[in-house]
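Hi, here's the filled form for the chain we discussed.

Project: internal
Contact: R.S.
Residues: 80
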Amino acid sequence: MAPVYTKYLIPTMECLARLYRGEPVWVSRLRACLAGKGYTEFTGVYRGISLGVKLGLVREVPISRKQSRYEPTPVGLVKG
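And the returned structure, exactly as it came back:
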């Protein structure tokens, strides 16, 4: 079954590509970037990231058992 498209995928990928400087990005920084674009829903960044992970555009980097940071894959950088 193909993943369902969400309106948060493209803005999340744009923010992730802009904020990525060689080290994984915190969700709070992504959320602030999306808020600057007018996307204020709290779960929007999580919807965009989860679909990006499913499509292979985003890689999840576990920091601890409960925390993760995110970085774009090379394909995600080009498409972002």
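Let me know if anything looks off before we file it.
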